Amino acid sequence: MYPQMLSDRAITNAKSQAKPYKLSDSGGLYLLVNPNGSKYWRLKYRVKGKEQLYALGVYPLISLKDARRKRDALKKLISEGLDPKVHEKQQQEIEADQSLTFKSIAIEWHEQRKAKLSDGYHKEIMRQLENNVFPVFGEDIVSSIKPPTILKCIRIIEERNALDMAKRMLQYINQVFRYARNTGRIEINPASDMRDALKGRKRRHFAAFTYKELPDFLKILEENRPRLFRQTVLATKLLLLTFVRTSELINATWNEFDLENNMWTIPAQRMKMRQPHQVPLSRQTLSILNELRSLYPKADYILPSVFNWQKPISNNTVLKGLERLGYKGKMTGHGFRALALSTIKQKLGYRHEVVDRQLAHAPKNNVDKAYDRADFIEERIIMMQDWADYIDKLKEL
After folding, report:
1. Per-residue pLDDT tens digits for 304-338
2. Domain assignment of residue 141, yes or no
3. Do residue 305 and residue 375 come from a single domain?
4. Structural domain of residue 178, as residue ranges?
5. Are residues 293 and 375 in the same domain?
């Protein structure tokens, strides 16, 4: 403990003079009073026999009590052989380094993408980074990460035979490094030329049969053998009729539907590309929706779980139903999108851009981007009814 030589009253009453002067407290602490009336706390100390001066702050922002507390903390550092100014600089460098880890920059990059992606897709990206990348080099300073470290991460994923995941993670890693370079954290992107390092594989598409197999499928689905829950049958029919993504269907709620105007509007936060999407409803689709409404009139979801109607059916419900119908490896929920795209173009004669707009695909090139600004809603309304009628005709075969 140091003797207390100053008081708050003495400091308050200290008047400015023609030259700066000091009001000493104890332990090297003093208040410097300047001619303009400003008052600054200073600590005088010695390290290795050399006198040093440390600025503690401005009075009254830093009170007498605060100044003494800071003095005691700094004196403790000095007693341990540390120079407070050197220690402060080292702490600042550590804090700066922590803000420059791959993980911290990835979180910043991820937040920048939030407005462009659906909530589910946005959260999934971070979950994948947390599971696959951060454990390997998330805490490393971004400028210290070299291609071999990135390759090690990718190889760990490939060893699980998760080759699609490895490719996706390399894409995300590359985007994070590109963001770090564009924001001045690094000069060179170490992941920019690593695509050739990935293990090759044949491109895998979601399983989907062709229109030639559709009549048999419709017959099996109508007969419902072996028996599936009614929600599963109706969900499968809705995927076939609307060809939306499975997640977009199972999470649909009744407030998204305008049944009077035969339109389903999927809000932006549930769409992969963060844009609202309209799905015209055919008469056949409306009939299914009316049946679902009668089954669970109090449910918010159009496809509530049979076990808990306050939650939607599982994301794998349709896939498991297709497997029970004998279509394992032959058809998936996502496969209905490929089926609709090819069949509507080939059999119904609609232009690619109209079908593609209904699929809500992201534009792949400048031509697609130009078409993406077009809505084609009138053509899509007619197309969706033609598609439903075409399916009904196939049932008669």
Report:
1. 988 888 889 988 899 999 999 888 888 988 889 99
2. yes
3. yes
4. 102-197
5. yes
337 is catalytic: yes
19 and 140 fall within a common domain:
no
- Burial zone of 44 (CB within 10 Å; 0-12 exposed, 13-18 middle, 19+ buried): middle
List the catalytic residue out of 40, 121, 211, 371: 371
Let me know if 110 is a catalytic residue: no
Buried b (16+ CB within 10 A) or exposed e, 83-108: bbeeeeeeeeeeeeeeebbbbbbbbe
pTM over 0.70: no
Number of domains in the chain: 3
Q: What is the CATH number of the domain that holds 146?
A: 1.10.150.130
- 30 is known as an active-site residue: no
Q: Which residue in the list 85, 272, 324, 345 is annotated as catalytic?
A: 272
Q: Exactly one of 71, 237, 245, 277 is catalytic; which is it? A: 245
Cα gap 102→133, rounded to integer Å: 9
Look up 245 and say whether it is catalytic.
yes
Considering the candidates 70, 237, 274, 334, report the single residue annotated as catalytic: 334
